[in-house]
Amino acid sequence: MYYLKECDVALMGAETFYADGTGFNTTGSDIVGLVCSYYKIPLYFLTPLIKLDIRSIYGHYKNLKISDLTHKMTEYWSNKELTKGIDFTAPELLGVKAKHIRGVLQNRVLFHLP
Q1: Number of H helices and number of E strands within the chain?
Q2: Is the Cβ–Cβ distance between 73 and 88 less than 8 Å?
Q3: Of all residues in the chain, what percent carry a pLDDT higher than 90?
Q4: Would the N or C end of the chain have less CB density within 10 A of its end CB?
Q5: β-pairing, 109-112 with 66-68?
Q6: Would you say residue 111 has pLDDT above 90?
């Protein structure tokens, strides 16, 4: 947020996007969308159209997938007691609502969202 407010534009890759313009990326992307809206910085998603999930047209949406990263994060910890009380779960992909995205750029073609 500190540096983003000095930017003229923000670009983000999409792991997936819906027909309504919602774009998905890793943890923190939803916050970038909110910060861009707050500072009125245009946010564009860069993606090939093959990442368009057309099932969204018919009302089928992704369920939020939560991963347990306990083993990955603590594999080399010598004191496993330190893990008690720590939640190592994290969402894999988070959606950025279309209202926070100015447009989608695909192969040098810009699609503006309404």
Answers
A1: 2, 10
A2: yes
A3: 69
A4: C
A5: unpaired
A6: no
DSSP state of 54: G
- Across 3-28, b (16+ Cβ under 10 Å) vs e yields eeeeeeebebebebbbeebbbbbeee
Q: What's the Cα-to-Cα distance from 87 to each of 82, 83, 90, rounded to whole Å?
A: 11, 8, 9
- What is the spatial distance between Cα 100 and Cα 55, in angstroms, rounded to a whole number? 22
Classify 44 in phi/psi space as left (phi over 0), alpha (psi -120 to 50) or beta.
Answer: beta
pLDDT score of 114 = 67
Element (H, E) at 66: strand 66-68
Read off the pTM. Answer: 0.80
State how far the Cα of 37 lies from the Cα of 31, in Å rounded to an integer. Answer: 10
- pLDDT band per the 50, 70, 90 thresholds, residue 113: confident
Return the H-helix or E-strand segment holding 81: none
